[in-house]
Design brief:
alpha+beta, Beta-Lactamase, Heat Shock Protein 90, 3 domains, five-stranded antiparallel beta sheet, 12 strands, 16% strand, rod-shaped
């Protein structure tokens, strides 16, 4: 997996942003300065021409312009010409061409003479006898513009490395809490699931710390549940195994054939109880490992209930309990068919075992616009109000429970319902009798 340094990445991005911003600013400054410089120098050309035109005609001819050594680096870049009637060259400055600078007779124009590009201002005197042209080499303007535009380059070349050092130090200080957080996680053992401290953590990192703490809490709760499950499973398995051993010793040591037969029968019952407990624990483990359903599967709840009732009815009748299916419509639910039958089997078997005769056990399937509903009701002793909230917890058995059991049946029901996006509710019936288990499923159109 490719990794990168957050500090180095931030430094690179920030410096790149500074360079891009400087380049964009320089471009905008160049365009603005170009416009302002052109206007300024054009105004200078026009003012120079008007000063010359203010001279009297004879005075213009007496002006003598010679070479000047102290004219500065831009002395030869500005030239002038004086033309009598626009045709006879009466005066020109050093560096000015002999040919007319521009054919335009009034105002500003651009012209090229002898390979040099000039910006020219032309103007006439009042009598239109004298034409004055003052010109400036465009190269001067370009040099001035480049000089002022790039004058900030040395500062940039010095400032960017300095800014890089400052950014490196500032980013290092900013990410130091992340380094401390990494060290805190690194030095913890596998079983240390205490919440990470959130003191001094930047606001941007707080959601990450909160998610990690929530993850640690879920893992801790899962590990505690597994420990409780293992402890309860060991306790529940110890009881039938101890009973099997005791009855086996009675059968082995006894001399009375009748007592031996009873002991062996109880050994078989203990084996069946242990096998049922192991099967339930394995089933619950498989359900826990199975991911939640995405809602793509759908099954007929009424048909699944009919199949399960048909399987359980003979054994229930032998126990003196009748099972009734009360449904007049096709009810579809978003659930896997095999898991749906496991849920129904556990609910109905639990009702038969603990409801008992005189029964009956009623299974009802209904559907409305919002959900599909499954109800399994018995007429047994029911469950105390204080214990209703604990139903569905693993290895919990109500104080009024009849017959053998391990307290995993309703846990399996609860887990399957949650995996299908459903909920389980426990209550007494309208007359305050027995136990009604209600499972609500997301409904699906009938297949």
């Amino acid at each position: 997996m490719r990794r990168y340094s957050l500090r180095r990445r931030l430094l690179t991005l920030l410096l790149a942003s500074v360079v891009v911003a400087w380049a964009a600013t320089t471009l905008l400054t160049y365009n603005h300065a170009h416009h302002e410089l052109d206007e300024l120098l054009d105004a200078h050309l026009a003012r120079s021409a008007r000063l010359l035109l203010a001279q009297e005609g004879d005075e213009l001819e007496e002006i003598r312009i010679g070479e000047s050594g102290d004219a500065g680096p831009y002395g030869q870049e500005v030239v002038l010409q004086v033309w009598r009637e626009g045709r006879v060259l009466a005066l020109r400055s050093a560096g000015a061409p002999a040919a007319r600078l521009s054919p335009v007779e009034s105002g500003f124009s651009d012209a090229t003479v002898d390979g040099r590009h000039w910006r020219v201002f032309s103007g006439w005197d009042v009598e239109r006898q004298v034409l004055v042209q003052v010109a400036e080499d465009h190269a001067l303007r370009e040099r001035l513009l480049a000089h002022y535009t790039l004058s900030g380059l040395p500062a940039l070349l010095f400032g960017v490395p300095l800014l890089g050092v400052l950014v490196w130090l500032v980013v290092g200080a900013a990410v130091r809490p992340l380094a401390h957080l990494g060290h805190e996680v690194n030095r913890r053992g596998p079983g240390d699931l205490r919440p990470l401290p959130d003191d001094g953590i930047p606001t941007e990192v707080t959601p990450l710390v909160e998610r990690l703490n929530a993850l640690f809490a879920r893992i801790s709760a899962s590990m505690q549940a597994e420990r409780r499950f293992t402890s309860h499973a060991a306790h529940e398995l110890r009881t039938p195994i101890a009973a099997i051993r005791a009855q086996a010793e009675v059968a082995g040591d006894g001399t009375d054939p009748a007592a031996r037969e009873v002991a062996l029968a109880r050994v078989i019952e203990g084996c069946d109880r242990a096998a049922r407990l192991v099967d339930q624990m394995l089933l619950l483990a498989r359900i826990d490992e199975r991911p939640s359903q995405d809602g793509s599967a759908h099954s007929r709840l009424d048909l699944a209930a009919a199949r399960v009732i048909a399987d359980l009815a003979p054994a229930a009748l032998d126990a003196g309990v009748a099972i009734e299916l009360a449904t007049d419509e096709a009810v579809s639910v978003a659930a896997d068919g095999a898991l749906l039958e496991v849920l129904l089997r556990n609910l109905i078997d639990n009702a038969v075992r603990h409801g008992g005769p005189p029964g009956p056990v009623t299974v009802r399937c209904t559907e409305d616009a919002n959900c599909a509903r499954l109800e399994v009701a018995d007429l047994g002793p029911g469950v105390e109000e204080t214990e209703l909230t604990q139903l569905g917890h693993r290895f919990f058995r109500a104080s009024s429970a009849r017959g053998p059991g391990s307290g995993l049946g309703l846990s399996i029901v609860q887990r399957i319902a949650e995996g299908c996006g459903g909920t389980v509710r426990y209550r007494r019936d309208a007359a305050g009798r027995g136990l009604v288990v209600e499972v609500l499923f997301p409904s699906r159109p009938a297949a």
